[in-house]
């Protein structure tokens, strides 16, 4: 690679660096996978992104795009040297169009900053993944979900348009400010969730909603998880339109309680369902009342309406801190399997059995309303070699079970490197072939995030199961 | 083409025919474009579809897939001879899964039959394009929209999974019963709206909602369309979550009134906004009341709550019959342009001016809540040659205006043949190239619906502007 040519494009020395690079740019949020790269560039315009990609294209240099690097699956680990293309300096909120309920942003804007900005203007951006210091471009690249997906859907549902740069430097715009679109292939939808393998996102038009006037959370303790999950299925059919439907087992909550020093009510429960309703005041009250009648008739132990803001915040804080609470105690491997919603309890039962059988702590919690289960496999006191061997074996078993139940490798984290072996083993060769033909069609030299997710073929780097 | 080989696959004589074919199989709903084909087959299984495609693939025979043929843009017109693959006999509703709120169907099921079936079971399938005798496979292929899109979204939002057959006969499944998916490229979303150019849909898993408990419509007359559209923008920001927000001008309604013998109230109005709210009783009432306060403060002439079922049905019947009312009087060309919602009134103003200037009747109505405008250019007494010339010129002008406003060729009808010249002229060469590279990747022999929509390149059939 010619340092001079790259420096001609990015002339500002504070936005370009060469080997050796800071380790944080060579990994993801967990920091366990480490790649290598020759250069790091931080473009500030679409033009710079296009010029860098054109240069990389001409010289067949691998490019690894990244935002804040908060992903959990190694999507941002550069595997082949080359250039790290860090979009975090392209972080301007460009416009808010109150008539079309859309905003235009650069990809490096933090989710938390965008949410705060639009809410300050009376609007609402529903996608709400746990990590708020992730970038919007990263959210789009993994089709991030989060707690509000039950009512509002996922990131895909809030992307109206994208400006993209293809592997060869070509700039194009897909989608638009329009609400409906039946005009040709939906390139926008192909790019969403493609983890930087097909194009680099340089601008986003996002859909907003009017800000809900109020919201109310309810904690529902149950004597068993199975009863809790059955209640979730009833709630989803009951025209009460909950925003969030989370589940968590008592044994898991204890970890979060210790971590934060906040107590959940009804410690005698085996599991909790945590509900939120939002909308207009009277609507929220009516929904919460109807849900109460429903669950109290179906063996809920209690129905604790969290009107006290401090209590409500504390309850959600514990739920939100579970991964960090686990990570504080021991290394862990996060899994975000998704199964059809009626299969959640069967999957969790299986994990609980496996936990006993294999003597490895397994923490389950997550989005009961959409079957998206966060599972942490915990290392505990295992030495490196034992941990690697047992983790691999147990991961294989949980994914096998999920696939048997009709589930998928990832609901919202993406595949990246670390979930790739499981994704490849759980996806038909026909599907993988079509995905790879599309990769080949858009990036025939294979420079963009090669070796990640679905990409198979000549350049094989990640291990397979 | 070897008749015997095709007859070996489709042995039932009632499900195969050879040239000359009934004219209805060679066209679309309008019947003005006519193609030609050597054979018509009506498969009843995925296996048969796969065998037919494998045969066509080996012999490089063009294949034109179709459902009920109700499209308005010539998507089902066979341009190159070959085989018409009619999916209408694959019309079984296979299962309804009440726990995951999904149904599995074959692609030939009529929308109206599916809606009736799921509503009978207490569920709701929101996509609601005007033509209820369209097939679900056809709806998916054009990403059909309809009146309820404001609140509920379009067909894309209700497709969980698809079984597909690729051009070479390969069968694959994309998507699943799972709610969330961040696992590899979203092939499902690439296929939705692709108008039969990438694959043939043989099975669909559709998402359902609980059936809304009640609904209520309101007719709001205004002194001008501009004021009406401004009110629509306010309503969309007001947390009243309307299901449908339609607009229609008084001069247009008169046609429907004559056609059906039903009168709209307040004939002194220049335009009407027609609203629907659905949900729980108290929710619907609260939304309707709040919307009333809002529009009465913003120059609505009246706020007519349509509690009388007969009146409400009549009002909607007139709205639904507008295209047929126009078509009954004269030949017309339907356009379903979409523009950003705040640009609707500017677009309609332009059309009204053009109507005067060019002395050609132009009927505008449609989905005010999503900027999707149905426009009929009416032939009147013009002779064939004059009509063709003037239609072409005026179509060019209205599309140019729409593109200038940031609009798109089609919101829900698709591109097919008849909107292709406008789509090609309004889409950047970069986007077209990427679409065509994907076509080439999935169907390198170009046998599936060649010459339709975005497809350019070697085999050019449709005229361009």
TrEMBL record, chains A, B:
Pfam families xrefs = FAD-oxidase_C, FAD_binding_4
PANTHER family under this entry? GLYCOLATE OXIDASE SUBUNIT GLCD
Write down what this protein is called. FAD-binding oxidoreductase
Ordered alphabetically, the record's keywords are: FAD, Flavoprotein, Oxidoreductase
Task: Decide whether keyword Transport is in the record.
Answer: no
Cofactor(s), names only, from the UniProt record: FAD
Give the classification, highest ranks.
Bacteria, Bacillati, Bacillota, Clostridia, Lachnospirales
Write down the superkingdom of origin.
Bacteria
The FAD-binding PCMH-type domain sits at 33-211
Query: Which intervals of the chain form a coiled coil?
Result: none
Q: Which organism is it from?
A: Lacrimispora xylanolytica
């Amino acid at each position: 690679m010619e340092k001079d040519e790259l420096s001609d494009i990015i002339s500002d020395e504070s936005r370009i660096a060469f080997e050796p690079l800071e380790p944080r740019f060579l990994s993801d949020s967990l920091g366990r996978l480490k790649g290598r790269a020759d250069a790091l560039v931080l473009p500030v315009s679409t033009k710079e992104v296009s010029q860098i990609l054109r240069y990389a294209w001409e010289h067949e240099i691998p490019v690894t795009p990244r935002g804040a690097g908060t992903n959990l699956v190694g999507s941002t680990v550069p595997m082949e040297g080359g250039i790290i293309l860090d979009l975090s300096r392209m972080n301007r909120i460009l416009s808010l169009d109150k008539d079309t309920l859309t905003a235009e942003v650069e990809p490096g804007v933090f989710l938390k900053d965008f949410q705060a900005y639009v809410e300050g203007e009376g609007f609402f951006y529903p996608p709400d993944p746990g990590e708020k210091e992730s970038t919007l471009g990263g959210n789009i690249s993994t089709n991030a979900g989060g707690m509000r997906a039950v009512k509002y859907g996922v990131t895909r549902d809030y992307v109206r348009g994208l400006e993209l740069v293809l592997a060869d430097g070509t700039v194009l715009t897909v989608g638009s400010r329009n609400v409906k679109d039946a005009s040709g292939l939906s390139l926008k939808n192909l790019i969403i969730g493609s983890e930087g393998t097909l194009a680099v996102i340089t601008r986003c038009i996002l859909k907003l909603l009017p800000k809900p006037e109020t919201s109310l959370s309810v904690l529902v303790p149950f004597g068993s998880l199975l009863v809790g999950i059955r209640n979730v299925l009833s709630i989803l059919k009951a025209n009460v339109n909950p925003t969030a439907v989370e589940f968590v087992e008592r044994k898991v909550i204890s970890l979060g309680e210790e971590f934060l020093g906040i107590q959940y009510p009804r410690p005698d429960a085996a599991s909790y369902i945590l509900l939120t309703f939002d909308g207009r005041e009277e609507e929220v009250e009516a929904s919460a009342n109807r849900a109460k009648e429903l669950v109290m008739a179906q063996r809920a132990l209690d129905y604790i309406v969290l009107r006290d803001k401090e209590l409500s915040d504390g309850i959600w804080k514990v739920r939100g801190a579970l991964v960090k609470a686990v990570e504080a105690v021991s290394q862990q491997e996060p899994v975000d399997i998704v199964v059809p919603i009626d299969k959640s309890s069967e999957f969790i039962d299986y994990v609980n059995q496996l936990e006993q059988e294999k003597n490895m702590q397994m923490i389950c919690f997550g989005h009961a309303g959409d079957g998206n289960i966060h599972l942490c496999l915990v290392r505990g006191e295992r030495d490196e070699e034992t941990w690697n061997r047992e983790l691999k074996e147990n991961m294989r078993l949980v994914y096998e079970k999920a696939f048997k139940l009709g589930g998928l490798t990832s609901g919202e984290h993406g595949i990246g490197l670390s979930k790739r072996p499981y994704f490849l083993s759980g996806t038909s060769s026909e599907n993988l072939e079509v995905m790879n033909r599309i990769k080949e069609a858009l990036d025939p030299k294979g420079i963009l995030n090669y070796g990640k997710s679905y990409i198979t073929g000549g350049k094989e780097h990640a291990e397979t199961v």
